[in-house]
Amino acid sequence: MNKPLPAEILEAPADRYSTHEVLNQALPASGFNAFSGDAVLRAAIEREAPWAASRCEALGAVAGDEDVQELARLANRHIPELKTHDRFGNRIDWVDFHPSWHELMSLAWKHEVPNLTWRTQEKNGHFARAVLSYLWNQVEHGTACPTGMAYASHAGFEAEPALAIWAEKSKGTAYEFSRKEVGDKPSVVVGYAMTEKQGGSDLRQTQTTARYSHTSDYHGAKAHWYELTGHKWFCSVPQSDGFFTLAKVDGEVTCFFLPRTLPDGSYNRFFVQRLKDKCGNKSNASSEVEYAGTLAIRVGAEGKGIREILSHAHLTRLDFAVGSAGLMRQCLTLALRHTTTRGAFGSSIADRPMMVNVLADMAVEVEAATLMALRVAKATDLMNASEHEKLLARIATPAAKFFNCSRAPSIAFEALQCHGGNGFIEEGPMARVYRESPLNSVWEGTANMMCMDVRRAMSKDPRTIDALFGELKPLAGQDGRFDALVSHAERLVRAAIDDEFLARPMTEAVARALQGAELLRHGSQEVVDAFMGTRSPGASGAWGSHYGTLGGTVTQAAARKIVHRSTVAG
């Protein structure tokens, strides 16, 4: 005889999967404006480039758009694919991308991220463009590589008459993914191919060779063409319309520009060997390439290649300093949204005193990084008219690149901690940003290379030291803790000139002093007190090795004000 079923089974829901209600999951970080909601960024544009505010606000809305954030996810989920041959067996050396990549590139070009500096007649174009790059680095990082290279390339195009058409096309705002010849394109994507297997950052070790071929008219200008033979170990964005590259002519390193499509419409001999399987930056194709009878236009004089390419490096390094600050800001935004919309132990996570300490500490670091990067952008705007700004930029640019790019992974790590296990899952943005965070520190010169460059500049031209402390000394006496920062930097500068062993602590001290100066000029009192009380030598805050170790003179009330200031509403 069958027994009747228990009541709890009879009352069970018909849907097998209705086992529970999903509660207390954090809200996605979307529906905000990354510019108008950012007090630091908004004030910076109001000071230096108010004419660009509407552009920045438009791009800030893109950063907070849920549909655009989905494009970023898709572009990194469906990674580029190398197509060496077409289906008929013809060599094509091309790269296929998910449609999301092209949508993102179209947005970046539409919003003038690669080229506002070169398009505007207003003052402080580098500063305004830096803010756009800062915002774009909160959208998607793989596409920030071609936007940054396009930005830097214009300076090279302007300096070489044969490349005038490229200078004009680099200002275009309509992105087009095609292999058309430059004269038939509305805009261009530009790459750089410098590094070889044996040399790394030491470009003097270049093995690729160049042999003069012919001189001919190129879009109304005289171009000197050479045939290149060799390889490049790192070539990002190999689908670009053209590339700056280096090769030796009679043993001397020379700069060249290599169009992918030649004037007659044929494809240049540019052989993509493979795509790199990178830790992060998955949406962006990076490759190894070979040249074999590859035609390229000489840029500048024979034997002056390193000097020529270093004239671009200032802009790429600036863009990395800005980009890493933008990534840090994205990490902070993600951490704030997660902790404010998820509860624990009777309150939001963000309201717990220990988390207030963490978030405030992160916010101080992000604001300091942002203001230092923007100060370098301002110096770049003024360097042609001011000797002080030119000399300051010479050391502040590599110092900011070193410090911001090196600090970004620590902020990404702490932001992931704020998410807990959810931050380590690829469905959300945090894991992608975490993997991305170290990259800028190794592109365009590692940390040691940047510190070496700072020291070299100081040794070669001591006026750079005068410019640095000329920037800092007008603030003397406003805060004893800042005075201690400056004195500490002075001692290390003197010591590092004599001993390379001290180049890194010296460059860090320089970066901290520059950050402190910008915070004194533009930061809130709470942020200034927290920075000076923890980042200055012998500070009373007794700052620990990790974020969230504010103490001493930094009160919980002050920390809460810092968190509130840094929150982007949405």
| DSSP summary, beta strand count | 11
Measured by DSSP, the beta-strand proportion falls in 5-15%
Low-confidence segments:
none
- Helix share bin: 40-55%
Helical stretch count?
A: 19
What structural category do the secondary elements indicate? alpha+beta
Radius of gyration: 26 Å
Structural account:
This protein is α+β, with helices and mostly antiparallel strands and 570 residues long. Helices cover 49% and strands 14% of the residues. Strands 3, 4, 5, 6, 7, 8 and 9 form a 7-stranded mixed beta sheet that branches. Strand 10 (343-344) and strand 11 (347-348) form a beta hairpin. It is globular and about 80 Å long.
Offer a quick outline of the entry.
The chain has 570 residues and is an alpha+beta fold. It has helices at residues 7-10, 39-48, 53-63, 66-77, 99-110, 116-119, 125-136, 144-159, 164-169, 305-340, 353-382, 387-419, 429-436, 447-460, 463-472, 480-498, 503-522, 525-535, 556-566, and strands spanning 81-85, 91-96, 190-193, 209-218, 221-236, 242-249, 252-259, 270-275, 286-299, 343-344, 347-348.
Features:
single chain; 570 residues; two-stranded antiparallel sheet; 49% helix; globular
Blueprint of the fold:
Blueprint lengths: L6 H4 L28 H10 L4 H11 L2 H12 L3 E5 L5 E6 L2 H12 L5 H4 L5 H12 L7 H16 L4 H6 L20 E4 L15 E10 L2 E16 L5 E8 L2 E8 L10 E6 L10 E14 L5 H36 L2 E2 L2 E2 L4 H30 L4 H33 L9 H8 L10 H14 L2 H10 L7 H19 L4 H20 L2 H11 L20 H11 L4
Parallel strand pairs: 3-6
Antiparallel strand pairs: 1-2, 4-5, 5-9, 6-7, 7-9, 8-9, 10-11
